[in-house]
Amino acid sequence: MDLEAVKRSLEVAGGGVTLPAAGLPKRFFETFALHGISIDLIERGHVICSMTTPPRLLNSRGFLDGGLMVTLVDLVGSAVFYSVGLATSGVSIEINISYVDVAYIDEEIEFDAKILKVGNTIGVSTVEVRKKKTGKIVAQARHAKYIAFPSKL
Predict the structure, then answer these.
(1) Under a CB-based contact definition with an 8 Å cutoff, are residues 52 and 45 in contact?
(2) Neighbouring residues of 100: CB distance < 8 A, sequence distance ≥ 6
(3) Listed range (21-30, 49-58, 128-137) with the worst mean pLDDT
(4) Which of 33, 46, 123, 120 is nearest to 80 (CA)?
């Protein structure tokens, strides 16, 4: 067991840089992740967005970080609920993602989100992440949401 390797993998590169969380703008992370994304299609129950993979979203191996990809899936998979007239995108209760390929720097990818079901309290969307040039699938996801409808009382 290499405890030092575990420690090194979790420490901030550069030796303990502290981020001023209190000084960051509201919704900083969403802005960081979504910067550069384009909306290509909005239809009832269907949204397609695309972006060119930027250096800031790459992992140490040089391709789109899996955590950031699931963040983008969360954001696009939530936005599609507005396309069916809901006043809220709800709260994520489950995101399941299967990674089948990678996206490299400057590669254009698209996020194709579709509503599978909107019930009384639960909604489900799917998001397919593809390489725009070839259509090759990078990841497939299912996103379940608790949808808090306003009370009729």
Answers:
(1) no
(2) 137, 138, 139, 140
(3) 21-30
(4) 46
Residue 1 has pLDDT above 90, yes or no: no
Range of the domain at 47: 28-146
Tell me the pLDDT band of 44, cut-offs 50, 70 and 90: very high
How far is Cα 112 from Cα 126, in angstroms, rounded to an integer? 8
SS3 content of the chain, % helix, strand, coil (to 5): 25, 35, 35
pLDDT at residue 14 tops 50: no
Domain contains 97: yes
The two three-digit tokens of residue 35, written as one number: 């910067």
Q: Is residue 135 part of a domain?
A: yes
The answer to whether position 121 is within a domain reads yes
CATH label of the domain that carries residue 83 = 3.10.129.10
- For 119, the token pair is 């019930």
